[in-house]
TrEMBL record:
It comes from the Bacteria. This is Glycosyltransferase subfamily 4-like N-terminal domain-containing protein. Residues 63-151 form the Glycosyltransferase subfamily 4-like N-terminal domain. InterPro entries: Glyco_trans_4-like_N. GO terms for molecular function: glycosyltransferase activity.
C-alpha cells in the first residue's frame, strides 16, 4: 500500500510520530512517503492545498491542524489528533495570541479534518473524550502512541552514588509545567539533581540553581541514555495527548512522577510504574521524589514495572497494526 504522511515540521511529538510511523510501515513492506513542509504553513495550511500526493497514493495520514492542506477527495484518509488545544482544561495556560489563534483558526482546521476524514484517531482515550465533547459527530477512535521498545530500553543504570537524578524532557513551556520546576528543585535541595532538555535562556527561573543541569537539545541515543540513567522522569504537565517522553522513559526503566491529569493516568499506573501528583501543586512532586529516593527497592520495582507496561501497551508494533487495520478497506 502507498501511504502519504505529510506534515508541517516542528520539534514536537507529532513530528516524531510521523517519522516513526513511516519507518514502521516501510519495515512492513508498505510504501510510506513521509513528506515535510516548513513550520510556517501550520498557520496557513490552505496554501498547501495544491500539493499533489505522490503518484499511486492509496491513503493519507495527517495531523488534524493540517486538514485544509492534505485532505484529498477519493483517497482514504486518517486525521490524527495529537494534542487537542481546544480542550477547556488548557485555556488558563494559553497566552492571548494562542487563544485567539486556536479559537479563530485551529477550530476551523480541525473541524474540516474531523468532518471529511474517513477516520478520526486520537492518541489517548482522554483526547477522544475531549474531542467528542466539542465535536459530537467526530466519532474518534483512540490508538495510543507507540514507541520502538527495542531501541528505547534500559541500556544503563542510574548512578548508585550522588544525588537522586530527575530528568525533564520536553518543550520548556507553561503547559509542560516549566514554571513549577524552580520551586520543586529549591525545596529538594542538593540531594537531588534535575537534568533537562533545555538551555538556561529558556528557563531563567532555574538558571541560578546549582542542582539543575541544562543539556540542550539531545539526539535520540543521548535521550535514551538520559532516560536510562535517571532515577525518575519528572513531568509536572497540565495537559497531554499522550506524551512520548513518558512512554520512552518507562521503556528505558525510569519510573515517572507526573501530574494526575488528562491522559497521564492511561500511561502511569500510580504506585506501580510511577507516582501521580495533584496538578499545579509542587509539594506533590517534592514528596514523590523524596519517597522514591528514600526507598531504592521500591524505585527499582517501579522501574521494572514501567518497562513491562511500556513493552506491553505502548509498542510501535501495536500502534502500527492498529493504523493498518483502519487503512484496510
Amino acid at each position: 500500500m502507498k501511504i502519504w504522511l505529510p506534515y508541517t515540521h516542528a520539534p514536537t511529538g507529532s513530528t516524531t510520530f510521523v517519522k516513526a510511523l513511516g519507518r514502521w510501515l516501510e519495515s512492513r513492506g508498505h510504501d510510506a512517503a513521509v513528506q515535510s513542509f516548513p513550520h510556517a504553513f501550520q498557520f496557513a495550511p490552505w496554501l498547501l492545498k495544491g500539493v499533489a500526493p505522490p503518484d499511486g497514493t492509496e491513503a493519507i495520514i495527517y495531523n488534524s491542524w493540517n486538514a485544509p492542506a492534505f485532505q484529498r477527495d477519493g483517497v482514504r484518509t486518517i486525521c490524527v489528533e495529537h494534542l487537542f488545544v481546544l480542550d477547556p482544561a488548557i485555556r488558563p495556560f494559553k497566552s492571548a495570541p494562542q487563544a485567539i489563534f486556536h479559537d479563530l483558526f485551529v477550530r476551523n482546521f480541525v473541524a474540516h479534518g474531523y468532518a471529511r476524514a474517513d477516520r478520526v484517531v486520537t492518541v489517548s482515550d482522554y483526547t477522544a473524550r475531549a474531542v467528542r465533547a466539542e465535536f459530537p459527530r467526530s466519532n474518534p477512535i483512540a490508538i495510543p502512541n507507540g514507541i520502538d521498545v527495542e531501541r528505547f530500553s534500559p541500556v544503563a543504570a542510574p548512578p548508585a552514588e550522588g544525588p537522586f537524578r530527575l530528568f525533564f524532557a520536553g518543550t520548556p513551556s507553561i503547559r509542560k509545567g516549566i514554571d513549577l520546576l524552580a520551586p520543586i528543585m529549591r525545596d529538594l535541595g542538593e540531594s537531588f539533581e534535575l537534568r533537562m532538555t533545555a538551555s538556561e535562556s529558556d528557563c531563567p527561573d532555574l538558571a541560578g540553581l546549582a542542582n539543575v543541569t541544562f543539556l540542550g537539545r539531545l539526539q535520540q541515543d543521548e535521550m535514551i541514555r538520559e532516560y536510562a540513567t535517571s532515577h525518575a522522569l519528572l513531568a509536572p504537565t497540565r495537559l497531554e495527548g499522550l506524551p512520548l517522553s513518558v512512554l520512552e522513559a518507562m521503556a528505558c526503566g525510569a519510573p515517572v512522577i507526573a501530574s494526575d491529569i488528562s491522559s497521564l493516568p492511561e500511561a502511569v499506573d500510580d504506585g506501580v510504574t510511577g507516582l501521580l501528583c495533584p496538578v499545579d501543586e509542587p509539594q506533590g512532586f517534592i514528596d514523590g521524589a523524596r519517597t522514591l529516593a528514600a526507598d531504592p527497592a521500591r524505585r527499582e520495582a517501579m522501574a521494572r514495572a514501567a518497562r513491562t507496561r511500556a513493552t506491553g501497551r505502548f509498542s510501535m508494533d501495536r500502534m502500527g497494526e492498529a493504523y493498518l487495520t483502519l487503512l484496510t478497506p
